[in-house]
Amino acid sequence: MNPLYVVGIGPGEYKKMTIEAAEILQDCDVIAGYAVYVDLMRKIPAFADKEYIVTGMRQEKERCRLALLSALEGKKTALVCSGDAGVYGMAGILMELKADTLNPDDMNPEIRVVAGVTAALSGAAVLGAPLGHDFSVVSLSDLLTPWEKIEKRLRCAAMSDFVICLYNPSSRSRKEYLRRACELAGEYRRPDTVCGYVKNIGRAGQKFEILTLRELKEVSADMFTTVFIGNSMTKRIGDQMVTPRGYLKE
Ligand code: SAH
After folding, report:
1. CATH superfamily assigned to domain 120-242
2. Domain locations in the chain as residue ranges
3. Does the domain spanning 4-117 belong to CATH 3.40.1010.10?
4. Residue 229 host element (H or E)
5. pLDDT tens digit string along 3-59?
6. Is the pLDDT of residue 151 over 70?
7. Nearest one of 121, 98, 126 to 111, comparing CA atoms
8. Which residue ranges have their beta carbon within 6 Å of ligand 1?
9. How far away, in angstroms, is 73 Cα from ligand 1 center?
10. Which of 118, 145, 116, 120 is nearest to 130 (CA)?
11. Ligand 1 midpoint to CA 169 (Å)
């Protein structure tokens, strides 16, 4: 039986996909994914003739179920995710769902994860080199994680002088979360700490800004924004955000 692939497609543009991901998708009969990513895939000529399984936001389990069914029917199937498939992505859910619903003694598709460029990395490249030293990634989405835990992680990361990369910084129902995260970081960092954000990385409408922590607090981010809060050493060099590794001090 063909394996079921979970493929990280990177930020969205074809040329930012890995060669491995592109080759696997090319070889598949069926591509399953969230509507926004399926639309991106359909526009790529190499994948235009694929059969697509499209599901909406918050239908992650259903998306996995349909992808599993397609693989069980013997079709070469890939479930696509933006960025990396394991970073706040579908790889884990798919493995859990398979373990919970299929009998391990029956013939089952093996699940193979194909790494992609996560937003922290593609966004960092747009800003310059903000992740030149230790960093932590925190998602501000409290749909599946209690907000108290998110605050604790933010606090610990800020206290430890990690560069902090924020995923899911905001949505219509969570407008105030980025402001709150900035306030928490501000308990340990100067208001002029160098920060940045990138919207729509590798997609139409890509936009970035480098600004201070004080200014970041006022930004209205959307769900296609990735935010970077610099550490105490992060600086601005021209229009780039740079966190030094420390070589020049040697
Ligand atoms: N698996 C994805 C992350 C999914 S969580 C990855 O590895 O990149 C969704 C969050 O990722 C968004 O809220 C946003 O913070 C970030 N993100 C994903 N794609 C993005 C893009 N093209 N531009 C900016 N941010 C993006």
Report:
1. Tetrapyrrole methylase, C-terminal domain (3.30.950.10)
2. 4-117, 120-242
3. yes
4. strand 225-229
5. 999 999 999 889 999 999 999 999 999 999 999 889 989 999 999 999 999 998 888
6. yes
7. 98
8. 11-12, 81-84, 87-89, 118-119, 123, 167-169, 198, 200-203, 223-226
9. 31
10. 120
11. 10
